């Protein structure tokens, strides 16, 4: 980096590591964006790979970072990159490629319904319309109370169980006719109202 670039970096509150063209951004002002517990969980994933292949844990690390924030703010992506010794842009490429990562804030419960053809032929389109009507939102939107975000998803490998909804990327709800969807929404809404209930993180 040039002297001018160094000065610009200092003014912006971040520094560049001497890692050549693929320098890792060190946003020291966001050093605590990942908790000690999150870093411990990431290290547990890193330990599954050879020492020189820490980056193999990038998807798990992003999922853990998302658990912390419900989405992936840029500072969290930078923190993952820093922890794994990767260029931030490479981590961004992973985060923006996979639909399970949230690149903007979501409601407490993200509902992803598969609308691919096999599911559509088994009622997913009708189910999606029911969810939209019941929640009063469209795909990619969040309810006014912040409880639900509705997303349209791709095949989840559960075509035989359609219609299927994935809750926060972690819990699959299957065979969703209107009564079952209503029961699911009522259950999750109640959980969102209960401060003692920890959400199924996404
Ligand atoms: S097409 Fe919907 S789960 Fe496979």
In brief, what are we looking at here?
With 202 residues, the chain is α+β, with helices and mostly antiparallel strands. Helices cover 43% and strands 12% of the residues. It has 2 domains: 95 residues, no CATH class; 85 residues, Glutaredoxin (3-Layer(aba) Sandwich).
Strand-pairing-aware structural class: alpha+beta
Which stretches of 5+ consecutive residues score pLDDT under 50? Answer: 1-30
Give a short account of the largest sheet. 5 strands, mixed
Distance between the termini: 38 Å
Strand content: 5-15%
User: H/E order of the elements?
Assistant: HEEHHHHEHHEEEEH
Provide structural commentary:
This protein starts with a helix and ends in a 9-residue tail after the last helix. It has helices spanning 3-12, 36-46, 58-69, 74-84, 88-97, 117-120, 124-135, 178-193, and strands at residues 15-16, 25-26, 109-114, 141-142, 148-153, 165-167, 171-173. α2 runs antiparallel to α3, α3 packs antiparallel against α4 and α4 (74-84) crosses α5. A hairpin with a 5-residue loop joins β4 and β5. It folds into two domains: 3-97, no CATH class; 109-193, 3-Layer(aba) Sandwich (Glutaredoxin). It has 202 residues and is α+β, with helices and mostly antiparallel strands. Residues 1-30 have low confidence and may be disordered. FE2/S2 (inorganic) cluster (FES) binds next to α6.
């Amino acid at each position: 980096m040039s002297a001018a670039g160094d000065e610009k970096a200092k003014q912006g509150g971040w520094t560049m590591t001497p890692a050549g063209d693929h320098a890792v951004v060190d946003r020291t002002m966001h050093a605590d964006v990942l908790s000690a517990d999150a870093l411990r969980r990431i290290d547990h994933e890193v330990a599954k790979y050879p020492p020189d292949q820490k980056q193999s844990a990038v998807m798990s690390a992003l999922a853990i970072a998302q658990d912390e924030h419900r989405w992936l703010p840029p500072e969290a992506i930078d923190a993952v990159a820093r922890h794994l010794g990767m260029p931030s842009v490479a981590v961004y490429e992973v985060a923006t490629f996979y639909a399970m990562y949230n690149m903007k804030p979501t409601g407490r419960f993200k509902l992803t319904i598969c609308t691919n053809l096999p599911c559509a032929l088994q009622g997913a389109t009708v189910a999606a319309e029911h969810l939209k009507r019941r929640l009063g939102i469209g795909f990619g939107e969040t309810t006014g109370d912040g409880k639900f975000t509705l997303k349209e998803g791709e095949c989840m490998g559960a075509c035989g169980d359609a219609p299927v909804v994935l809750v926060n990327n972690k819990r699959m709800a299957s065979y969703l006719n209107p009564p079952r969807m209503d029961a699911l929404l009522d259950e999750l809404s109640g959980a969102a109202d209960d401060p003692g209930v920890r959400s199924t993180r996404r």
